[in-house]
Write a structure and sequence with these properties.
By secondary structure, this protein is mainly alpha-helical. The chain folds into 2 domains: 60 residues; 226 residues, MetI-like (MetI-like fold, Orthogonal Bundle), CATH 1.10.3720. The protein is 79% helix and 0% strand. Helix 12 packs antiparallel against helix 13.
């Protein structure tokens, strides 16, 4: 009887493992196949895209020219540069400002500290679509519409609440004795923060950096609103450039070029995530344990 019970438990465990791996394999196919399909579709001619959408391209007919056309004719080189610039500045400013704000809120007791933290958290509860009208008129009054620095300000402001929320928990979990030791050794408050406490919050900073990068790199709504007008065409980011080639041509577009542009937009996000995946997992795990 005991052996039968052990066998049943073993069979149940094996079936459970098989079921889990089957679900994960199905999820992998659902997520990865569209990216693979997009990649090989970007190397096809337009007629092949529509006549044989799921067929692999002939190696002798790979249309590498689609990428050249997208980069130069479709101005994706310009859009790519704008996206890199605004994303890099957004991530850097969000990390700098939110880490200092979170450190102050986590380490110092001062009047209004708790309401100020709730003020930042309120930004997580307000969808940007609800604030876009007053924000538009404010940008207009400050003459920031149609400029990259206006879009940069909007991105930094929208990214701060999440970053402050995450980093406040990390700084609260760090031992106060480290800060005290640095101060006793002659460091001022900024030096103690920058050289001692900030490096210890590296997992949280990397987590914030990844989410900030992905959110900014793929953002379309605010860029579409704030970079409207003919004078702002040179400031378009990649999502705007991808949408524009379809809208302007009334969807009669060079689809090989469009898919090449999609691959260009996708690869940096995949590269950043693959390079920082371990740090992201570590940061989320530590945040859960500290919470």
């Amino acid at each position: 009887m005991a052996r039968r019970g052990v066998r049943r438990i073993g069979c149940a465990a094996a079936a459970s493992v098989v079921g889990i791996y089957t679900v994960l394999l199905g999820y992998f196919v659902v997520v990865v196949y569209p990216m693979v399909w997009m990649l090989y579709t970007s190397l096809k001619r337009d007629d092949k895209i529509f006549s044989h959408p799921f067929q692999l391209p002939d190696p002798a007919e790979l249309q590498w020219v689609n990428y050249e056309t997208a980069w130069y004719v479709g101005k994706f080189g310009q859009y790519f540069g704008n996206s890199v610039l605004v994303t890099a500045l957004t991530v850097a400013l969000v990390l700098l400002l939110s880490s200092m704000a979170a450190y102050a809120l986590a380490r110092f007791a001062f009047p209004g500290a708790r309401p100020l933290l709730f003020y930042f958290l309120a930004g997580l509860m307000l969808p940007v679509q609800m604030a876009i009208v007053p924000l538009f008129f404010q940008m207009k009054s400050l003459h920031l519409l149609g400029t990259l620095h206006g879009l940069l300000i909007a991105y930094v402001a929208s990214g701060m609440p999440f970053a402050v929320f995450v980093l406040t928990g990390f700084f609260r979990s760090l031992p106060a004795s480290l800060h005290e030791s640095a101060v006793l050794d002659g460091a001022n408050e900024f030096q103690a923060f920058w050289h001692v406490m900030r490096p210890l919050a590296k997992p949280g900073l990397i987590t914030v950096a990844i989410f900030s990068f992905l959110g900014t790199w793929n953002e379309f709504f605010m860029a579409f609103i704030f970079l409207s007008g003919e004078g702002a065409t040179r400031f378009r980011t990649l999502p705007l450039g991808l949408a524009n080639i379809a809208i302007v041509s009334q969807y009669r577009v060079d689809w090989g070029m469009a898919f090449a542009g999609l691959v260009m937009a996708m690869l940096p996000a995949l590269l950043v995530y693959s390079l920082l995946q371990k740090q992201l997992t570590k940061g989320i795990t530590l945040g859960a344990l500290k919470g």
